[in-house]
Amino acid sequence: MVSERSVPIEEVTTGLAEDDDLALIRRVAAQDRQAFEALYRRYAPRLHGYLWKLLGRREVVEEVLDDVMVVIWKSSTKFNFTSRLSTWIFGIAHNMALKAFRKYPREPAGLSPAPEEAVDEAVTDASVLRDELRAAVAGALQTLPPEQRAVVELTFYHGHSYQEIAEIVGSPVNTIKTRMFYARQRLAPIFVKLGIAPTS
Predict the structure, then answer these.
(1) Is 110 within 8 Å of 66 (Cβ atoms)?
(2) For 129-138, b where at least 16 C-beta lie within 10 A, e where not — what string?
(3) Got the DSSP string for 84-149?
(4) What is the DSSP letter of 156?
(5) Residue 140 — φ and ψ, nearest 5°?
(6) Distance between CA atoms of 128 and 171, rounded to whole angstroms?
(7) Given this chain, do its domains 16-108 and 123-200 carry the same CATH topology?
């Protein structure tokens, strides 16, 4: 008797999400506005986070995000179903972000000012430290050139493989690996100072 392989729930969920993505983009290609609104709700927050980390200026990020969604609407019939929809969408966002990065100089990175109201006593030291660490890591990423920062963002924050990142940014896989190598090399001393163990 052949035993059935136990499929991890993450694998099932990912597969369902990808099937849903493909169904949505087919409907968008048929000019279904409700499908486009659903696609917008699904991807806009992720794209906003990605663009924010690359561009760091609210008005620029919002302008680029709007432009990306317009391109998706107008170019939906060009999606060829040979890669994940997220790879195609992030490729559009990446190219438009680089154009905006060259057009608008990035403002110096800084921490958001603390709110004036008193800190709630229920906030634990652990949560404060976690927020400070998150801000420190975000600041460290801003020290990377945009090409390296994009690779780190797409790998660790958006879960793309090197092959998918190569498709997104339009570079060979070996170039992506090289960018990651130099990004890790540049971030390592910063992370040591922050007390973060480097990942393998």
Answers:
(1) no
(2) eeeeeeebee
(3) -HHHHHHHHHHHHHHHHHHHSPPPPP-PPPPPSSPPPTTS-HHHHHHHHHHHHHHHHHTTS-HHHH
(4) I
(5) -65, -40
(6) 39
(7) no
3-state helix, strand, coil in the chain (%, to 5): 70, 0, 30
Q: Copy the structure tokens of residue 147.
A: 């090409």
pLDDT digits (tens, 9 = 90+) for 105-124: 655 444 333 344 434 444 44
Q: How far is Cα of residue 144 from the mean position of the Cα atoms in its chain? A: 15
For domain 123-200, the question of CATH label 1.10.10.10 is answered with yes
Domains in the chain: boundaries? 16-108, 123-200
Domain over 16-108 is classified CATH 1.10.1740.10: yes
What are 7-30's pLDDT values in tens digits?
Answer: 444 443 445 567 789 999 999 999
- The pTM of this model reads 0.64
pLDDT at 93 over 60: yes
Q: At what angle do helices 173-194 and 125-141 cross, to 10 degrees?
A: 140
Which of 36, 29, 30 is CA-nearest to residue 78?
29
CB atoms inside a 10 Å sphere around CB 84: 18
Residues 6+ apart with CB under 8 A from 107: 56, 57
Using CA atoms, how far apart are residues 77 and 27, in angstroms rounded to an integer? 10
